[in-house]
Amino acid sequence: MKSLKPWIIAVIAASLTLSVIAGASAQGPGSPPVAFTGTVTSADGVVAANLAVESYVGDQVCDNTPGTTFRRAGESVTRYWVTVSHASQKAGCGTDGAEVRFTVGGRAVTQVGTWSASSAVHTLNLTLAPEGPASVSVDVTVWQSLRTNNIFVSTRPAGASWTTHNTPVDLSALSSSGNFYQGSPVPITVDIGGGATVNIDVTVWRSVRTGSHFVSTRPQGAGWTTFNTPIDLSALSSSGNFYQGSPVTVEVDLE
Which of 87, 224, 228, 235 is the most exposed place for a label (fewest CB within 10 A)? Predict the structure, then answer.
C-alpha cells in the first residue's frame, strides 16, 4: 500500500480540526449576561454614588459582576450599571421575558426590568421606593369571658377599628421563670397604610402570684417586647359578657 503524500495528510488534519471546531460551535457556550443601566433618582434627594446595585430574578441574586451607582464628570444625576446573568451561568437567573428586580444600597426600586438577549445593554431608569416606617403603633386590649374566664385579644392600628381574635389565648404553659402563665402567640396582620401591611405576634402573660395580665408584641420571628403595666380588667363590656381590658398602645419595631 502506498503511503499518503504529506500534502494529503495536511488536508485531512485540517478537515478534522475544522470539524471539531464546528461541533463545538454548534453546542454553543452559555449565553452571555445582559447589562442594565440608567439614572437613579429618589424623592428624598440626590442618590449617592458608590452604592451597591443588586439584581434579582425571583429570589435569586443574579449579578454577573458587582453593580454600583456612579456619577459622570460634570453631571449631577446619579447613574448605575449592573450585569445580570443568564440561567446557563447561574441557575434561576435570566431567560427571555424574565422579570428582573433591583435594589440600590439595599433599598427597593419601583421599576422592574425584563431580561432579553435581544440587546446586550438595556436602559431602565430607576426610582427608589419610599421608605416605610421604622415602627408602627398598635393598640392591644384583652377581654375575659365572665362565663368561661377565657382570655381573648383585640388589636387595631392606633386610632382605627378593633379586630377581635376569637380563639382563646392558651394560658396553660408556665414561663421558664415559673412566675407567669405564658400565652400562645396570636398572629396578626396590621394595615400600616398605603396598601402595606406588617405581620406581628401578640401574646398575654398572667402573673402566677397576682393574677394580673400583661401583653407582649413582636414582629414575627423577632424578640418580644413586654408592656409592663398590668391590664385593667375591672370594666364590664356593654354586653355584660366580658371584662374589658384597658387599651395598651405599643410601638412595634419593624426593623
Answer: 228
Give ∠ CA 140-142-148 in degrees, rounded to 5: 160
Task: Give the Cα separation of 119 and 84 in Å (integer).
Answer: 12
For 102-157, what is each residue's pLDDT tens digit?
999 988 899 999 999 999 999 999 999 877 666 777 788 889 999 999 999 888 87
- Dist. CA 213–CA 129, nearest whole Å: 41
Q: What are 13-69's pLDDT values in tens digits?
A: 444 333 333 333 333 356 899 999 999 999 888 899 999 999 999 989 999 989 999
For 8, phi then psi, to 5°, come to -70, -45
Instruction: Write down the pTM of the prediction.
Output: 0.48
User: Distance between CA 231 and CA 121 in Å, rounded?
Assistant: 61
What's the Cα-to-Cα distance from 171 to each of 141, 165, 186, 204, rounded to whole Å? 16, 15, 12, 8
